[in-house]
C-alpha cells in the first residue's frame, strides 16, 4: 500500500512538472505539494530496503548457499538495471552506442532511482554474505545509513570522474549530473532495511508504531525549523539537496507514514482504496516504466513534454493526472491478472517486447 501511494504521487509529480504552466508553480499549496513530492523517491528506496530485509530474514540461508532464490533475485536486479539504462538510451541504434560523445555517455550513465536501488541491493547482499548472523543486519544497516547521510556533503564536493570512468563515476556525481547518486540516496534504502528489521523484531509492533510516529514527527520538526541555522553552520548552499539533516528529515517522514499505515492496516486490507494502492504497488516497476514513456518519452516515442510542454492550466493538469492514475490502475490490474492466470503468456509477452526493441535497434 505504501509503495502504491508512492506510485500515485509519482504520477502526479511528473505530470505537474512536465505540463503545468510556470505561473501556477507558486503559492503555499504548490510549495506544500512540492515538499510532499520530495518524499516519493525516498519512499521507493526506503521500501525497497524494507523488502530486502524481509526477504533476507526468510532466505538468508538460500542466498549464502547460492541456491535458486539468490539467482532469481540477481536476475530480477539485472532486469531492473537493464530497464534503467534503456530509459536513458541517447541513440536509437545499438551500433551507435559504441561511438557516443562524452555528453551522450554522461546522459546514458546518469544514476537514476532504479540504478540506486540495484546498487544498494547488491551492497546489502554483500553485507549479508559478510554477516555471520542475520539478526545483526539491522544494526549494521542503521550504522551504514547514518554514515552515508553524514558523508554525502563531502562526496558531493568531490569530482568522481577524476578517479572513475563515466559509467561508474555517475553513481557518485552530485545533482544535476545524476538525479539520485548513491550519497545520500542509498542511505534511504539502508534506513528502510534497518527500520523494518527493528519493526519486525519488536514484540509489540503496535507499540513500536505508536512510538515511531511522534518521534519521527519531532525529528522532522526539529530538522525543518533549524534548516537555515544548520545549513549556515556547515556552510551548505542548499538544505534541500544532499544535506545530512535533510536526509534525516526525509527518513523521518517515511517512518512516520510507515507507522500510520501499520495502525491502519486492517482497515486498508478491507477497503477498495487500500486494494487499489496495493495493486499498483505490486506493479510499481511497470507503472514507473510506462508513465515515463508517456510523460517524458524516449528514443522510441514523444511524450507530453514534447507535445505539450509546460503550458497546461492547473485544471487541465489535475484532469490529466487523474486520467493517468485511472489508466495505470487498470493497466496494472490487467498485467497482474495475466501474470497470475497465464504466467507463460506474460513471459512470452515480455520476451517478445524485448526482442522487438532489440530488433528495432539493430536495424539502424
Can you describe this structure?
The protein is built from 18 helices and two strands. By secondary structure, it is mainly alpha-helical. Helix 1 packs across helix 3 (40-64) and helix 3 (40-64) packs across helix 9 (182-201). The chain is globular. The chain starts with a helix and ends with a helix. The mean pLDDT is 92.
Strand neighbour order, sheet with most strands: 1-2
Query: What share of residues are in beta strands?
Result: under 5%
Helical stretch count? 18
**Main pleated sheet:** 2 strands, antiparallel
Strand tally is 2
End-to-end CA span: 42 Å
Structural class comes to mainly alpha
Mean pLDDT: 92
Characteristic key phrases:
364 residues, mainly alpha, globular, 75% helix, 2 strands, single chain, two-stranded antiparallel sheet
Provide a short characterization of the protein structure.
Helix content is 75%, strand content 1%. By secondary structure, it is mostly helical. The longest helix has 28 residues, at 314-341.
List the helices and strands and how they pair.
Blueprint: H1 2-19, H2 27-37, H3 40-64, H4 68-87, H5 102-109, H6 113-130, H7 137-156, H8 166-169, H9 182-201, H10 205-225, H11 227-233, H12 244-263, H13 265-270, H14 272-282, H15 284-295, E1 297-298, E2 301-302, H16 304-307, H17 314-341, H18 343-363
Antiparallel strand pairs: 1-2
Helix pairs in contact: 1-3, 1-14, 1-15, 1-17, 3-4, 3-6, 3-9, 4-6, 6-9, 7-9, 7-12, 9-12, 10-12, 14-17, 15-17, 17-18
Amino acid at each position: 500500500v505504501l509503495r502504491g501511494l508512492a506510485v500515485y504521487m509519482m504520477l502526479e509529480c511528473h505530470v505537474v512538472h512536465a505540463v503545468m504552466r510556470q505561473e501556477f508553480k507558486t503559492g503555499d499549496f504548490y510549495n506544500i505539494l512540492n515538499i510532499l513530492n520530495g518524499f516519493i523517491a525516498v519512499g521507493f528506496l526506503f521500501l525497497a530496503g524494507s523488502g530486502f530485509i524481509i526477504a533476507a530474514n526468510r532466505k538468508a540461508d538460500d542466498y549464502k548457499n547460492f541456491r535458486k532464490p539468490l539467482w532469481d533475485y540477481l536476475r530480477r536486479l539485472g532486469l531492473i538495471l537493464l530497464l534503467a539504462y534503456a530509459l536513458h538510451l541517447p541513440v536509437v541504434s545499438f551500433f551507435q552506442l559504441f561511438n557516443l560523445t562524452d555528453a551522450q555517455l554522461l546522459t546514458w550513465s546518469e544514476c537514476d532511482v532504479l540504478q540506486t536501488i540495484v546498487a544498494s541491493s547488491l551492497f546489502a547482499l554483500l553485507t549479508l554474505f559478510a554477516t555471520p548472523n542475520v539478526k545483526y543486519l539491522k544494526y549494521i544497516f542503521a550504522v551504514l545509513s547514518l554514515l552515508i547521510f553524514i558523508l554525502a556533503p563531502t562526496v558531493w564536493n568531490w569530482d568522481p570522474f577524476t578517479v572513475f570512468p563515466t559509467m561508474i563515476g555517475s553513481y557518485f556525481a552530485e545533482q544535476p549530473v545524476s538525479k539520485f547518486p548513491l550519497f545520500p540516496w542509498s542511505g534511504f534504502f539502508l534506513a528502510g532495511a534497518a527500520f523494518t528489521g527493528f519493526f519486525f523484531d519488536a514484540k509489540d509492533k503496535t507499540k513500536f508504531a505508536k512510538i515511531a510516529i511522534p518521534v519521527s514527527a519531532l525529528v522532522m520538526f526539529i530538522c525543518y525549523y533549524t534548516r537555515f541555522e544548520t545549513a549556515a553552520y556547515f556552510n551548505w548552499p542548499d538544505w534541500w539537496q544532499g544535506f545530512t539533516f535533510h536526509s534525516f528529515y526525509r527518513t523521518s517522514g517515511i517512518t512516520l507514514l510507515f507507522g500510520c499505515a501499520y495502525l491502519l492496516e486492517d482497515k486498508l486490507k478491507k477497503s477498495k482504496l487500500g486494494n487499489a494502492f496495493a495493486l499498483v504497488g505490486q506493479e510499481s516497476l511497470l507503472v514507473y516504466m510506462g508513465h515515463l514513456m508517456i510523460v517524458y518519452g524516449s528514443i522510441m516515442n514523444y511524450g507530453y513534454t514534447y507535445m505539450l510542454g509546460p503550458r497546461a492550466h492547473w485544471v487541465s493538469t489535475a484532469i490529466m493526472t487523474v486520467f493517468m492514475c485511472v489508466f495505470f490502475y487498470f493497466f496494472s490490474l490487467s498485467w497482474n491478472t495475466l501474470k497470475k492466470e497465464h504466467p507463460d503468456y506474460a513471459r512470452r509477452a515480455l520476451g517478445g517486447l524485448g526482442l522487438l526493441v532489440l530488433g528495432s535497434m539493430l536495424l539502424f
